[in-house]
Amino acid sequence: MPRIRIITLTVIAMVAFAGNSLLCRAALRHTSIDSASFTIVRIVAGAAVLWLAARLHSSSLAGKGNWLSALALFAYAACFSFAYVSLPAATGALLLFGAVQATMIGHGLWKGERLGLLQGIGMALALGGLILLLLPGLSAPPLASSLLMLGAGIAWGIYSLRGKGAGDPTRVTAGNFLRAVPFAATLSLFMLNDTNLDETGLWYAAASGALASGAGYAIWYAALPALRATTAAIVQLSVPVIAALGGIMFLNESMTLRLVIASAAVLGGIALFLSRRRL
After folding, report:
1. Are residues 266 and 98 in contact, defined by beta-carbon separation less than 8 angstroms?
2. Cα separation of 74 and 176, whole Å?
3. Contact, 276 vs 119, CB < 8 A?
4. Above 80 in pLDDT, residue 113?
5. Predicted confidence (pLDDT) at residue 279 exceeds the cutoff of 50
6. Phi and psi at residue 128, in whole multiples of 5°?
7. Confidence band (pLDDT; 50, 70, 90) for 102?
8. Closest C-alpha among 78, 43, 41, 80 to residue 202
């Protein structure tokens, strides 16, 4: 694959991933759609696009997804939607990304991986950044929403770990999105009294599922084989930064000093950890 195409696909995928935060925050802040409805529309739209991508472009018949992974996917999507009721886009993306990486690093340590000095410093720096962000204060994000977003990150970390070696990633992700639909439908029925199907909000949710999730994952999986594992991990550090810039440009969100310092600590610590890790 030509280098320029790899770079282009990677940039598009990172923008799409950041777009999930921006679209969800825009929908829940500027429209009256409820979080459960946003979740099911996002999952259904994502499932449709990924199913089509798998049928048209999949190079392997291996992998169809499974129910446990689908449950983790649903938990991520639901916690994500409810968290963004009150979290700014940048804060939510940073908490999500930090929790995903912490989950995957923690799994590696539990499996017996050893930390070098720089890895230990990087992990301590990243955890310190998350703690700083969540400390009480005027600029601290709402605790309940922050915990929901951390839960979303843990769920996505678990989903990612379960997906390793499961077969063709596009087919597996499509299968898991399809299996997540009944979970999302059950949540919508449970939250029926709070349902509000705002038209603009529905379009945001559909775009989040079809473009930022479905098309974004398909594009990422197209670029991923051409990237080294370390490069693929580090390039994802750009997602919270893109979300922060998008929040400022499109959602009139402000960048606090606490968020700037926490972001530098979390993203810098993770980059330091990954740069010395054999992947």
Report:
1. yes
2. 9
3. yes
4. no
5. no
6. -60, -35
7. confident
8. 41
> Distance (Å, rounded) from C-alpha 219 to C-alpha 57?
11
Q: What is the mean pLDDT of the chain?
A: 89
Is 40:181 a contact under the CB 8 Å cutoff? yes
What is the distance in angstroms between the CA of the first residue and the CA of the last residue of the chain? 22
pLDDT cut 70: percent of the chain above it:
94
CA distances from 272 to 48, 122, 164, 258, 268 (A): 38, 5, 23, 21, 6
Distance CA 80, CA 159 (A): 14
Query: Distance between CA 233 and CA 229 in Å, rounded?
Result: 6
260, HSE (Cβ side, Cα atoms, 13 Å): 4
In three-state secondary structure terms, 34 is: coil
Would you state the pLDDT for residue 231? 77
Residues in Cβ contact with 155 at an 8 Å cutoff, skipping those fewer than 6 apart: 72, 73, 75, 76, 79
Using CA atoms, how far residue 136 sits from 139, 141, 143, 163, in Å, is: 8, 9, 9, 36
141 CB burial (10 A radius; 0-12, 13-18, 19+)? buried
| Closest by Cα among 81, 93, 95, 84 to 134 | 95
Check: CB of residue 252 under 8 Å from CB of residue 202.
no
Tell me the domain boundaries of the chain. 3-275
Sequential DSSP letters for 191-252 = TGGG----HHHHHHHHHIIIIIIIIHHHHHHHHGGGS-HHHHHHHTTHHHHHHHHHHHHHS-
Q: Which residue has the higher pLDDT, 99 or 60?
A: 99
What six digits make up the tokens of 166?
């499961």
